[in-house]
Design a protein that fits this description.
Length: 264
């Protein structure tokens, strides 16, 4: 049980105390927002489930809380702190391994197709549609690289979460952006230009339409989006995960070597 702090206690400190004690039972706190959260959790019998928290703290308090948090995520080569992703913990080997094991479309395809294979597909479409941007192909290859840490948050799930919890979609985008920044910094890459980012997004949409046409069972009907599939691709043969891992890692290493990037 937490000893009630003095009246001048920092709300962010109380939030941290609450987080530290939630798994142990009853919590006592003095700040109004913390009291409300603790009471609600007790009423619902959810005092052990941190993911039900919805703190109403100030922006400054949230910033302090985030600075002092530690959210470990396991990867193939070691822990990444999701509260503050750092370039020193990024590994392209772990990236290739994780993306090769994560299935696209939440497993809806007849055979598993990995995010690693999808990433190479997007890079190939990008190169074909935007040959003048060939020097920036690495951004297309890495467009879903954050998923090796946070998983594939498919669009329908994000849309549903946004219905129930306004702001969740923005929060997910912020997390992706922070992980993407750490990935780019690990390769000494600047952020992509607006033109490159738009081209990558378009190539991703074309890949999405192409995968729907060639991989999603026909029982699902026509694709629920406007982008046309890539006509030059008439079939996609899903790769076993070791092959997808090797193909992605090999291509990424070629991108790194070709464009003179230096891995620290």
């Amino acid at each position: 049980m937490i000893t009630p702090p003095p009246d001048h206690a920092d709300p962010a400190d109380e939030e941290l105390q609450l987080l530290a004690q939630l798994a142990r039972g009853r919590v006592i706190a003095t700040h109004s927002s913390t009291k409300a959260v603790a009471s609600r959790l007790e009423r619902l019998g959810q005092a052990r489930q941190v993911h039900f928290l919805d703190f109403a703290i100030t922006e400054a308090g949230h910033h302090r809380l985030k600075q002092r948090a530690f959210i470990p995520v396991a990867t193939f080569t070691g822990i990444v702190d999701l509260a503050a992703p750092h370039h020193s913990t990024i590994s392209i080997e772990a990236m290739a391994h994780g993306l090769a094991i994560i299935n696209r479309w939440a497993g809806a395809t007849e055979l598993p197709i990995s995010v690693a294979q999808h990433s190479n597909l997007v890079a190939n479409i990008f190169l074909t549609l935007y040959p003048a941007l060939a020097g920036d192909i690495i951004y297309a290859r890495l467009h879903d690289a954050h998923e090796y840490i946070i998983g594939d948050k498919i669009r329908p799930i994000v849309a549903r979460l946004a219905l129930d919890c306004p702001g969740v979609g923005k929060a997910i985008e912020n997390i992706k952006a922070e992980v993407d920044t750490a990935i780019l910094e690990s390769l000494c890459l600047p952020p992509p230009s607006d033109a490159v980012a738009e081209a990558v997004a378009h190539a991703d949409e074309v890949a999405l339409a192409t995968e729907w046409k060639l991989l999603i069972p026909q029982a699902n009907g026509a694709a629920p989006f406007d982008t046309s599939p890539f006509k030059r691709i008439r079939s996609i043969k899903p790769l076993a995960w070791p092959d997808a891992e090797a193909a992605f890692l090999g291509a990424l290493k070629r991108d790194i070597a070709q464009h003179g990037l230096v891995r620290p």
